[in-house]
Design brief:
The chain is of the alpha/beta class and 209 residues long. The protein has 2 domains: 153 residues, Ribosomal Protein L4, Chain: A (3-Layer(aba) Sandwich); 49 residues, no CATH class. It is elongated, with a radius of gyration of 27 Å. The longest helix has 17 residues. Strands 2-1-3-6-4-5 form a 6-stranded mixed beta sheet. 24% of the residues are buried.
């Protein structure tokens, strides 16, 4: 498939980028996308939650009252979960929420996500650009020219570009990544995906293995 290449002013350059149908025009596999996004979000969880159970509470283990004759339920320990300050029943323990996902599934998920964006006309190709120095205002001007000022956008670079990255860091709705950092979650979470010309070859190389 061919997509018009835009400049940073949002105007067509007269050139077209040839995007591989094997990456940008496949039949999307929604379940693969779901699994990859689920794994990404699971990996963000710290899993450091912890509550003490009755065996971990510090306190006496003596019987707090006689077994019979009190008119109330029997109780054997102040650590009983029914009492204030007692242990918690089946409380949370530290755990790792991550799970294994086959590389082929992850690759299919990213291709599906890119194909979905292409079908929705939410994918654009922009010629490579750079800033003389990190400046958020310059980056905002680029977003305005591309019509992305008030939208969630994902800018994909071919190689690491510190000036462009630092210029975007203060903006909540925009994120800059290199083609090797591209993930299914980031693609699906953005309203529009902007590929710099130099990133196309890297994306196709990574996803065509």
């Amino acid at each position: 498939m061919k997509v018009a290449v835009l400049d940073i002013n949002g105007k067509e350059t007269g050139r077209k980028a040839n995007l591989s149908d094997a990456v940008f025009a496949i039949e999307p596999n929604e379940h693969a996308v779901y699994l990859d996004v689920k794994q990404y979000l699971a990996n963000q969880r710290q899993g450091t939650h912890k509550a003490k159970e009755r065996g971990e509470i510090v306190g006496s283990t003596r019987k707090i009252k006689k077994q019979k004759g009190t008119g109330t339920a029997r109780a054997g320990s102040i650590k009983n979960p029914l009492f204030k300050g007692g242990g918690r029943v089946f409380g949370p323990r530290p755990r790792n929420y991550g799970f294994k996902l086959n590389k082929n599934i992850k690759r299919l998920a990213r291709k599906s996500a890119l194909s979905i964006k292409a079908q929705e006309k939410s994918l654009m190709v922009v010629e490579d650009f750079n800033f003389e120095a990190p400046k958020t205002k310059d980056f905002i001007n680029v977003l305005k020219a591309l019509g992305l000022e008030n939208k969630k956008s994902l800018i994909v670079l071919g190689d690491s570009n510190n000036n462009v990255y630092l210029s975007s860091r203060n903006l909540q709705r925009s994120e800059v990544v290199t083609n090797s950092e591209l993930s299914t979650y980031k693609i699906m979470n953005a309203n529009s995906v902007v590929l710099l010309e130099s990133s196309v070859e890297g994306i196709e190389s990574n996803l065509s293995k």
